[in-house]
């Protein structure tokens, strides 16, 4: 199930809990639920976003085993963070320095590939309503796109590749083009449908947030 409402203690206590989660992440066989928990806490408690960014930069600087499983788990969480939250300007500058340094020291490595992906994501991230779904986290860990299936009236279902930054308007435009409706005077929009209701998806809504709600 998608993360639900949580009860929190003080920011200091929550920061300690997050630090312990990061320590656990290094040896976790299935890091995805732990990553989603960290992201959810940051979404609920925005002052901790900078703290987690700084902790992840620290953990990926001079690791004992560069490119090892533990090191890559930290890079993968940093990737998910970059697609969900923007840090404050000072931390963002510090992060960019870290990404540049990593690409310079370990060219063509997995760490450098994550650093490049993160830099591009930071240029697109504007904030999320929901944390990434478990499926999205798995996709981000591989630096890939998700496949979203859209059911179109009078036409076969269409599969669309989306990123964490793709909006409903962008998907609607692509489908209109695919279906040869570019010259149609009609307006087109996406709808999300559940057992209880059907409602239009706002043009600026991120499709990744819609998918998280379905999870």
TrEMBL record:
Task: Specify the species.
Answer: Burhinus bistriatus
Q: Which GO terms describe its biological process?
A: signal transduction
Domain annotation MyTH4: ranges: 1-141
Q: What is the primary gene name for this protein? A: Plekhh3
One Gene Ontology CC term in the entry: cytoskeleton
Which Gene3D superfamilies would you find in this protein's record?
MyTH4 domain, Phosphatidylinositol 3-kinase Catalytic Subunit, Chain A, domain 1
Q: Which residues form the Ras-associating domain?
A: 144-215
Matching SMART domains? MyTH4
Tell me which residues make up the FERM domain. 146-215
Listed InterPro entries: Actin_motor_Myosin (IPR051724), FERM_domain (IPR000299), MyTH4_dom (IPR000857), MyTH4_dom_sf (IPR038185), RA_dom (IPR000159)
The protein depicted here goes by the name PKHH3 protein
Top-level division of the source organism's lineage:
Eukaryota
């Amino acid at each position: 199930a998608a993360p639900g409402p949580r009860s929190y203690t003080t920011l200091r206590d929550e920061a300690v809990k997050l630090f312990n989660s990061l320590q656990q992440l290094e040896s976790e066989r299935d890091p995805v639920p732990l990553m989603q928990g960290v992201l959810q806490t940051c979404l609920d408690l925005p002052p901790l976003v900078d703290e987690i960014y700084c902790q992840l930069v620290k953990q990926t600087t001079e690791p004992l085993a560069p490119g090892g499983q533990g090191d890559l788990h930290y890079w993968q969480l940093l990737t998910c963070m970059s697609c969900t939250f923007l840090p404050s300007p000072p931390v963002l500058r510090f992060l960019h320095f870290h990404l540049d340094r990593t690409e310079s020291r370990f060219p063509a490595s997995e760490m450098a590939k994550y650093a490049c992906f993160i830099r591009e994501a930071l240029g697109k991230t504007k904030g999320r309503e929901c944390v990434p779904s478990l499926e999205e986290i798995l996709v981000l860990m591989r630096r890939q796109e998700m496949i979203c299936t859209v059911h179109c009236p009078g036409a076969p279902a269409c599969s669309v590749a989306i990123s964490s930054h793709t909006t409903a308007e962008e998907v609607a435009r692509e489908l209109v083009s695919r279906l040869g409706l570019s010259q149609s005077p009609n307006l087109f929009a996406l709808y999300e449908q559940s057992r209880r209701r059907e409602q239009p998806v706002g043009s600026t809504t991120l499709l990744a947030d819609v998918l998280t709600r379905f999870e």
